[in-house]
Amino acid sequence: MHPLSIFIGRRYLRAKRDNNFISFISLVSMAGIGLGIAALIVVLSVMNGFQKEVRGKILGVASHIQINGFENGLAEWRQVMESAQKNSEVIGAAPFVTGQGLLTYGQTPRGVGIRGIDPVQENTVADLGSNMKVGELSALKPGEYGIVLGVELARALQVQMGTKVQLLIPQANMTPAGMLPRIRTFTVVGIFSSGHYEYDLNLALIHIKDAQVLYRLDDHVSGIRLKIKDLERAPLVARELAKTLRVDGYVSDWTQQNATYFRAVQIEKRMMFIILTLIIAVAAFNLVSTLVMVVTDKHPDIAILRTLGASPATIMKIFVVQGAMVGMIGTVLGVVGGVLLAFNVSAVVSGLEKIFGFQVLSKEVYYISELPSDLHWNDVGFIAVIALIMALIATLYPSWRASKVNPAEALRYE
Questions:
Q1: pTM of the model
Q2: Which one of 153, 181, 217, 274 has the minimum C-beta count within 10 Å?
Q3: How much of the chain exceeds pLDDT 90, in percent?
Q4: Structural element, H or E, at residue 91
Q5: Non-local CB neighbours of 155 within 8 Å, separated by 6+ positions
Q6: What distance in Å separates the CA atoms of residue 374 and residue 376, rounded to the nearest whole number?
Q7: Which whole number is the average pLDDT over 203-211?
Q8: Phi first, then psi: what are they for 404, rounded to 5°?
Q9: Do 346 and 370 reside in the same domain of the chain?
Q10: Residue 146 in contact with residue 158, Cβ under 8 Å?
C-alpha cells in the first residue's frame, strides 16, 4: 500500500474534527466492535467451561472407551483386557457387570442400574473412589453383598450407612409356585456423589463377584472399561481396538455413549457464535455511515489531492486505512477485554451477586456455584480475524465513493 495513503489515513483518524458528531460515531463503531468481540469471547469461554465441567463429571463415572459383550457377556475377558492394555494409549482397564434392578426400602421402590465392579481396578478408570461422600469403595467385598448408592438415590430411598435394602432382579426363578423374581438383601456400605444428577439418582454399585452370581453370568462379565491418556483421541483409539481385538462384542467411546448431549452443546455453541457475530457485524457496518460522513466532510481535501496528482486508487486506500484502523483498535480492545473477563468471570459474577443480592447459579440446582470458564485461544484468533474482515469489507463502499469524487465539482463552491 502506498505510504501516502497510510500517512493521510492515520492523520484523519487522529485529527480533531470540526464535526464532533463524526468523531462520536467513530468512537461508537470502535466501542461496538470491542464489546461484540468481548461478549463473544466470554460466552464461548463459559460454554466451553460448562462443557468441560459436565464432561469431567460424566467421565468420572463413565469410561473413555467401553468394550461390551453381547447378551451372554465376555467369556475370555481377561485375555481381551490384556490385549487392550498393550495399546500405548490405554492407561487403565477394569471389568464390569451391568444390569437392571428394583431397589426397595420399606414402601419406597426405585428402578436402578446395577453395576458390578472390582473396587481396586475400578479406580484406574473412574473417579468414584474420590467421590465417596460416606464410606469407601473398598468396602465392597465378594459374598458380603454390600452396595454403594448415589447420593440422590440414597435420598430418594431415605437410607443411610448400614441400612438393609432389597434388590429385585427381573430374571425369575422357577419354583413349585411358578415363576418368581429373585430378591437379594444388600447392606448400604457407601454413598457417592459424582456431581451428575442422572448417575447420582440411577446408579448402584456392587462387587463384580456378587453381580456375576446375581445375574447368573458364571465367570463372564458384561464388558471392559478403558481409560486412555487423551480423551479427545477416544474415537480413534476405539476404532483401532475394534480392528485389533478379537472379541465377541463391540467397542464404543464416550462420544457415542453421550452423543445426544454433546451434539446439543455443539449446536448451542454454533448458534451463540452466529448470534453474537451478528452483533459484531452491526458494529462493523457502523463504519459505513461513519466513513460516508467523513468522505462528505473531506470533499475539498480529496479534490486538492486529486489535483496534485493522487490517483483514485490512492484516495480509496486512504479511507480503507482509516476504517481498517478503527476496526483494528476495536478488535484489540475487544480481545484484551474479553480475555481478561474470561479469566476472571467467576470473580466478576461473585461481585455482581454481592452488589445486587442475587445468585446466578444455585448449587442445589446446578451442582456448581461458580461460572466455569475455559478460554480457547483458537476461538479468540478466529473471532479477531472475522471482526477485522468485517471492518475491512465495511470500508469498501465509502472508499470507492471517495475515489469517484470529481475535483472540479468539489472545489466549485470553495
A1: 0.69
A2: 274
A3: 9
A4: strand 90-105
A5: none
A6: 6
A7: 91
A8: -95, 5
A9: yes
A10: no
Question: In the listed set 256, 280, 302, which residue is the last one of a domain according to the structure?
Answer: 256
My answer on whether 324 and 288 are in the same domain is: yes
**Cell numbers for 235:** 474415537
Give the DSSP letter of residue 17: P
Q: Which of 62-71, 147-156, 339-348, 393-402 has the highest mean pLDDT?
A: 147-156
Does residue 163 sit in helix, strand or coil?
coil
For residues 290 and 32, what is the distance between their CA atoms, to the nearest angstrom? 13
**Cα dist from 60 to 45, 67, 84, whole Å:** 22, 18, 21
Residue 324 near residue 392, CB atoms below 8 Å: yes
Q: Domain total for the chain?
A: 2
Residue 190: pLDDT band (50, 70, 90) is: very high
> Residue 219: which pLDDT band, with cuts at 50, 70 and 90?
confident
Strands (E), 151-260: 164-175, 178-192, 203-207, 223-228, 249-253
Domain C-terminal end among 256, 289, 320: 256
CA–CA distances in Å: residue 101 to residues 3, 46, 78, 143, 182: 79, 38, 26, 19, 10
- The mean pLDDT value for 18-38 works out to 75
Under 8 Å between Cβ of 121 and 94: yes
pLDDT tens digit sequence for 333-369: 999 998 998 888 877 777 777 777 766 666 555 555 5
Backbone angles phi, psi at 99, to 5 degrees: -170, 180
Q: Which three cell numbers stand for residue 275?
A: 448470534
Burial class of residue 162 (count of CB atoms within 10 Å of its CB; 0-12, 13-18, 19+): exposed
The Cα 194–Cα 205 span in angstroms is: 13
Both 147 and 282 in one domain: the answer is: no
Domain that holds residue 164: 63-256
Position 91, amino acid: I
Q: To which H or E segment does residue 266 belong?
A: helix 259-297
Residues 196 and 90 in one domain: yes
| Residue reference for cell 496528482 | 309
Cell of 2: 502506498
